[in-house]
Automatic annotation (TrEMBL):
InterPro entries: Methyltransf_12, SAM-dependent_MTases_sf. Signal peptide: none annotated. One of its GO terms (molecular function) is methyltransferase activity. The keyword Isomerase does not apply. This is Methyltransferase domain-containing protein. Keywords: Methyltransferase, Transferase. It holds the Pfam family Methyltransf_12. It comes from Streptomyces broussonetiae. Residues 44-144 form the Methyltransferase type domain. It comes from the Bacteria.
Amino acid sequence: MWDERVPVHVAGDFYDLDAFRTRPDVLRDFETAEVGDVTGRTLLHLQCHIGTDTLSWAHRGAARVVGLDFSAPAVEAARALAAGLGHGPERAAFVTGDVYDAAQSVPEASYDIVYTGLGALCWLPDIRRWAETAASLVAPGGFLYLAEFHPVTESLDDATGTRIVRDYFARDAQVWDEPGTYADPDAETVHNRSVQWQHTLGDVVSALAATGLHIEFLHEHDVSVFPRFENFEVRGGYHRFPDGHPRIPLIYSLKATKG
């Protein structure tokens, strides 16, 4: 499924790679504020897709970035994008591999920053195994930074986000068979079956804490990067509920350090 969608994402307006090549920075303002200065640091991006977030960290000064994804076409697209920006593999490397086996796939044993961006964890059935793998790749004195869509949004109605219609604590696999992609709902696709899992906020935090990482902060944000609910409007570069509408957390972010 992901292999088939890579050409759609590379060519489409959602990722707008022509604009990215002109200004290679698509990171959200809360991410850059919370991660801080990355100058001279090494960064590993797990589940990097076509590498736009990964390369944005390089643009912001990271000495070396490494992106890992299980889709070979996505990795090839990321390598091509990096080369077009003038980054050789010594500055920006991309490797194909399962995130659970990342320690065997990436070129270095550890990194100053291990980063996971929006929309990644829902594809993983075992959040504890993910946490153990991610934590093992954080260098002493380094940290893991995660930004993810808040799981509470999946329990609410899609129209207004005011009614609970789904079980927040559901652990069963959710199987979908839908054509198109979030980047282009009208795209013609053949491989349409996908499987997702819901991980509560408590599951994610507890999984990371069990690895020995120190949870430095957990922040919740009332903005989204896509129209999650039908009544959303765009203000300040984000999708939000209308003024006066009760707010809920739409994204969360956390930082977990290794002593």
